[in-house]
Structures are given as structure tokens and as C-alpha cells.
Design goal:
With about 450 residues, the protein is an alpha+beta fold. About 30% of the residues lie in helices and about 30% in strands. The mean pLDDT is about 95. The structure holds zinc ion.
Length: about 450
């Protein structure tokens, strides 16, 4: 009965060693070359995985060194795809306790860049397929492993894949969390511009990341009494911190808030809107903007966007705002539920910005993504999850997008569990050895269940 589990646990050393070979390749996006669309190291990671797949007896296809596929029983028709990525985010500082590009096992915990995102789950998926093959577990259809190399920078790898091949009708990616993520809200990141004529507001710069609540903003004001500024700062109740410094007739005000991902803005303190609100109390030059994007509001109500359904509530973040020489530009990030579409969000924003004297310029966006929780595929994944994890399986809706956002029939299945913080994208990223093996077992059983 525990054939799969015995097989996987018996391969523990081999699995950990395969992971360490991949961790050793610092597959951060680099300069593209003719045969390496995302740089040298992502390609090296792809070739290493290709070697591991071939060693496992799978037939591998390489699409432009961007994506590889490794198939088991393709002649039966590929019904299920497992999509993982081998690129990683950069290591930004030296708070790592171990070398991020050298897998390090300490008390059953594996540290290294990519251990949870997404090289660990990728190795688990490979061994799940290898296990099915080596144990001769019968499948009525074929399964395809798909390994990409550009998930962290826009998933252009999948565009290359689509030029050559189509996705199987059912796809899961272990690049999210358990149990199953079946709904991903739509996303619109829009840019607007306008002019401000004021001899009191010299410049403003706030926020740098389009998909985050900005934690810093700075403005320079002219000819405003220092005393007035200090008393408004004193009276401020936003929760943000303000620092002011006078230089002749200019005063610089710096505002510090708290950063948060744009899909969960309620956990942040927006430094841009907090500073705009403070400036308007000194000199109402940005009143129109504050009216449509007020501090403390995260549901887009003032722009007529507010709505919610089974996928949750719409979120709206004013993430970047700059003024220089009277010209201003801004960015707004909206995550909207499945009941709405890009056209609705564009229309509401365009109207609200126009009324406030600004111009809606352009946007980057994705429509919402949904796979029915009542589909056989989702039910099978949840059943396998319940049987193996001993926990109730359920579906989750999220505001961020996963690797399968633009793949019909795609869901995220793993690999984060519960509320554990795996330091994904941060220092000391990890997965436990036990979780790595459990994932491989879970994926093997998922393949067996979905394909029979
Ligand atoms: Zn990832």
C-alpha cells in the first residue's frame, strides 16, 4: 500500500543531492544572449534539470533554452502537466547564515535560494514521475513535467512554450500553497499623469515598486512656516512617521509608512497617501487626488471600484507618485474579483482621474483566473491532499497571480503549508527534508489519481 512512500523515502539522499546540484546554479535572470533568452545561469539550471530528467529515463524536449518538457507515456495523450520554475530571485544582502547557493542541511531543514521557490518542489515533481515510472504504476494517460526559467520576471518563458506546444488540459504548479489555489483575482497596474501648478509644492517622490504599498515618500515645500508644518505633523493620526528639515525657504518632509504586498494592502501604511494628506492640510494643492485615492482606503471606493464576491474584495493601492517641474505621474495597482473585468476597472479609473484633473495613460493587466472548485481535477487534488496530509482540503482565492494565471485549467497545488514563513525571496529560504519527501509522495499520488 505504501509502495510510493517507501520508494520516495528510500531515495532521500538522491533527492537531496539532485536539489543541491540545482541550488548550486545561481539562476538569477541575466543578460539575454542568442541561445539563452534569460541569461546564462537560468539556462544552466535548465540544462542540469534536463540531464536529471534524462537520467530518470524521461524523454526531454527543450524549447529555445527557455522551457523543457519531460514526458511519461506521451503516446497515451498528455492529460496532466506539472509546471515548476528553475529561476530564482537575487540575493540582496548578507543576512544569510549559510551560502545561499550551497544547499545546507541543518536538523532536517534545507537552506538555500530556491529551496521552496521553486527548485525543491521541481525536484519533488521529478521524483514523483520517476517513482510512477520505476514502480510501473499504470496510468491511463500521460503526464508532462514543464520546467521554466522566467517565472520571477514576467513568465515570458511560457510565451515561448506556447509558440511550440499547448498545455495539457489539467495543470498544477507547486509554486503557491496547499491545499489548492483555484481563483486568482484580476490585476491592473495603471499609469496616470497630469500637471500641478503650485509655488508651494516643489517636488514629490514616493514609492518605487508598482505592486507594493509604498513605505517611503518625500516632498519639498516652499514658503510654508515651519511651525505650521510641525503642528500638522504633531496632529497627524495616520500611523505614518514624518520628519521635516528646513533649508532656507524650503522644507523637506520625509514620510515613513509600512510596506505590504499590493494584494494585502490593509496590512500596510501607505506613505504616499499619508504625505499627500499632510500636504493638503498645509496647502490644498493635491485635494483632487486625495479625494479619489484617500489615505486608509484600500478598496477603491472613492473611484467607484469597490466590490466583492467569493474571490474576495477588490483592493486598490496608490503605489508610486512623483512630481517634478510641475509634471506628475502615478501608478495604481488594483486586484479585482472574478465578477469584474479589466474594462470595468479602466473605465472607473479613467473617469475618476479625469474628474480630478489627471489623465489615465496605460496599463498592464490580467483578467481573473478561475478553475471551478467542483471540477473533477480540483476534487481529486483535494482528496489526495486530505488522505496524505490528514487535513481538510479546501480551495483558496488569492489576490496575487501564480505561474498558471494564464493557463486554462491551471491551479496551484503546494508547496507552502499553513502559515509557515519559508522566507521565500528573503534570507535563509528553506524547505524541510520531510516536506520535500512528502511533496514527492503527494505529487506521485496526485498523478496516479488524476490519471486513473
Ligand atoms: Zn515561484
Amino acid at each position: 500500500m505504501n509502495e510510493i512512500k517507501d520508494y520516495i523515502y528510500g531515495k532521500k539522499d538522491e533527492i537531496v543531492s539532485a536539489l543541491s546540484e540545482l541550488i548550486r546554479i545561481p539562476s538569477v535572470m541575466g543578460e539575454p544572449t542568442e541561445d539563452a533568452p534569460f541569461g546564462k545561469e537560468p539556462k544552466n539550471a535548465l540544462l542540469k534539470m534536463s540531464e536529471l530528467c534524462e537520467k530518470s529515463g524521461l524523454s526531454v524536449t527543450n524549447y529555445e533554452n527557455a522551457v523543457i518538457c519531460a514526458d511519461l507515456y506521451p503516446e497515451k495523450g498528455l492529460e496532466l502537466g506539472i509546471l515548476c520554475h528553475l529561476d530564482v530571485v537575487p540575493v540582496n544582502n548578507d543576512n544569510w547564515k549559510t551560502d545561499p547557493f550551497e544547499l545546507c542541511e541543518k536538523d532536517g531543514v534545507l537552506f538555500g535560494r530556491g529551496t521552496i521557490d521553486d527548485k525543491g518542489p521541481a525536484v519533488a515533481a521529478l521524483y514523483a514521475v520517476k517513482c510512477i515510472k520505476d514502480l510501473n504504476i499504470p496510468l491511463s494517460k500521460g503526464v508532462r513535467l514543464i520546467f521554466g526559467t522566467n517565472e520571477e520576471n514576467g513568465s515570458e518563458d511560457l510565451e515561448i512554450y506556447k509558440k511550440h506546444d499547448k498545455f495539457p488540459p489539467k495543470v498544477f504548479t507547486p509554486d503557491g500553497s496547499f491545499p489548492v489555489i483555484n481563483i486568482e483575482k484580476g490585476m491592473m497596474r495603471s499609469n496616470f499623469s497630469g500637471f500641478i501648478s503650485s509655488d508651494k509644492l516643489v517636488s514629490f517622490e514616493g514609492g518605487k515598486i508598482p505592486n507594493a504599498v509604498p513605505d517611503r515618500a518625500r516632498a519639498v515645500l516652499k514658503n510654508i512656516e515651519q511651525e505650521k508644518i510641525l503642528s500638522e505633523i504633531e496632529r497627524d493620526r495616520s500611523g505614518a512617521e514624518f520628519f521635516s528639515e528646513q533649508k532656507g525657504d524650503l522644507t523637506e518632509i520625509v514620510c515613513k509608512g509600512r510596506s505590504a504586498h499590493a494584494s494585502t494592502p490593509e496590512t500596510g501604511i501607505n506613505a504616499v497617501t499619508a504625505l499627500i494628506s499632510l500636504i493638503n492640510r498645509l496647502e490644498p494643492v493635491l485635494k483632487g487626488l486625495e479625494n479619489i485615492l484617500p489615505f486608509g482606503e484600500t478598496d477603491g471606493r472613492a473611484m467607484g471600484l469597490s466590490c466583492k464576491d467569493e474571490s474576495g474584495a477588490l483592493t486598490c493601492v496608490f503605489s508610486i507618485f512623483n512630481i517634478s517641474d510641475g509634471k506628475c505621474s502615478g501608478t495604481i495597482d488594483v486586484r479585482f474579483p472574478v465578477c469584474k473585468n479589466l474594462a470595468f476597472v479602466e473605465d472607473q479609473e479613467r473617469k475618476a482621474l479625469y474628474k480630478a484633473g489627471f489623465t489615465f495613460n496605460d496599463y498592464l493587466g490580467d483578467e481573473p483566473h478561475i478553475v471551478s472548485k467542483d471540477s473533477d481535477f480540483v476534487k481529486q487534488l483535494l482528496k489526495v491532499y486530505e488522505e496524505n496530509e490528514g487535513e481538510k482540503g479546501y480551495c483558496v482565492a488569492i489576490g496575487g497571480g501564480t505561474y498558471v494565471h494564464n493557463i486554462e485549467g491551471g491551479v496551484a497545488f503546494g508547496a507552502e503549508r499553513g502559515d509557515i514563513d519559508y522566507n521565500m525571496h528573503g534570507d535563509n529560504e528553506f524547505i524541510t527534508t520531510e516536506e520535500l519527501l512528502k511533496d514527492a509522495v503527494l505529487f506521485a499520488k496526485a498523478i496516479e489519481n488524476v490519471l486513473n
